[in-house]
Design goal:
With about 270 residues, the chain is α+β, with helices and mostly antiparallel strands. It folds into two domains: about 50 residues; about 220 residues, Porin. Helices cover about 20% and strands about 50% of the residues. The chain is built from two helices and 13 strands; from the N terminus they run H-E-E-E-E-E-E-E-E-E-H-E-E-E-E. It has an eight-stranded antiparallel beta barrel. The longest helix is centred in the first third of the chain and has 47 residues. The radius of gyration is 31 Å and the shape is elongated.
């Protein structure tokens, strides 16, 4: 009898504990669901109010610069409603101010590739940067414009690709492809240039020049929906390299490059 009573008591305690645990789990699931609903409601309300809210954004951009052009990709992770950490990769080409494209002809017909007289290297930049996007003003409504300051800096790799020309050797009277050198400078800058070497030349002879860069800009995001990035970026940037960069013959080589740019942005947020 005593054993039966003890068994019934233990069974009752077990059922009670299990029931409490089940109730606790139910309450826990309910609370989590309600928290998720509240988060969704908050994001919807903020979207209606024009507040940009997201976890991650991916942005592609095309930029025109005062000395060239470029493309970039940016990954952003939001930390607060006003600050986003950004990781950015840019690929750009710098043009010298003295560059002038010409083409040889017989007076009536152009019969060669156009070329830039005096150009010795194509100069590309590959930059890897880290920075922040700081919100200055939210949209106010869906059709508004969000304004933010963007700044980043990091490593810059200058890539020099030799520029080739097709010339006629006055000694052999044969045409050949040459790049700039002290030995061939008379031919490279002489009157027997036939045309440019084309885009396929020089890629296997690329030289790398390490450096650093810094960039600052204002970003105007006019995308109607928070999930879509549509905007314009106006900024300035500067790059410094460990050695001088030869782009044009008979011109001063530089280590520091400074330029303004405008970029058109498109992307997605999550």
């Amino acid at each position: 009898m005593k054993k039966l009573s003890l068994f019934l008591l233990l069974s009752a305690i077990t059922v009670s504990v299990y029931a409490q645990d089940s109730t606790s789990r139910v309450y826990s699931k309910t609370e989590k669901k309600e928290a998720r609903r509240e988060k969704v409601r908050t994001m919807i309300r903020q979207a209606e109010e024009g507040v940009l809210v997201y976890h991650k954004q991916s942005i592609f951009g095309v930029q025109g610069r005062t000395n060239g052009y470029g493309f970039f990709y940016e990954l952003g992770r939001m930390k607060t409603n006003r600050k986003t950490n950004i990781y950015r990769v840019d690929f750009t080409e710098i043009k010298h101010l003295k560059e002038n494209k010409v083409q040889t002809s017989n007076g009536f017909i152009f019969f060669s590739n156009p070329f830039i007289y005096g150009k010795v290297n194509n100069f590309y930049q590959l930059t890897f940067g880290f920075g922040q996007q700081h919100m200055l003003g939210q949209k106010g409504n869906k059709n508004g414009v969000a304004v933010s300051a963007v700044y980043n800096g990091g490593l810059s790799l200058g890539l020099l690709r030799p520029y080739y020309l097709e010339v006629v050797d006055p000694v052999t009277n044969e045409s050949k492809m040459i790049k700039y050198s002290q030995a061939d400078s008379a031919l490279f800058l002489g009157p027997t240039i036939m045309g440019g070497g084309g885009l396929g030349k020089g890629w296997g002879e690329m030289k790398v020049k390490p450096g650093v860069f810094a960039k600052a800009a204002l970003r105007f995001d006019y995308g109607r929906f928070n999930e879509t990035v549509s905007g314009i970026e106006l900024g300035i940037s500067g790059e410094w390299y460990t050695s001088k960069i030869p782009i044009m013959a008979r011109q001063k080589d530089r280590q520091f490059f400074f330029q303004g740019y405008i970029a058109f942005l498109f992307g997605r947020r999550k």
